[in-house]
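URGENT: need a sanity check before tomorrow's submission.

F., can you look over the DUF1059 domain-containing protein record below? I want to be sure the sequence and structure line up before it goes out.
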Amino acid sequence: MTRKVADCRKTPSEINCSLTIIGEEDEVVRAAAEHATSAHGHDNTPELREQIRTMLEDASPTNT
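Structure tokens as predicted:
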């Protein structure tokens, strides 16, 4: 299974977040949603998790 990447640098934020999360898709979505809630003040909703899922990219071989 291809590992996925969520990179906060690709989403503008007031705190200029630089967190990158890499792992299996469901793990990354869960961790990114928790991060979006705790660090960025978003509500952890199904809509947020779906938005995160659409923004994921495949991890490059150097990230795996």
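My own read: Residues 4-59 form one domain. The chain has one domain: 4-59. If you see anything odd, call me.
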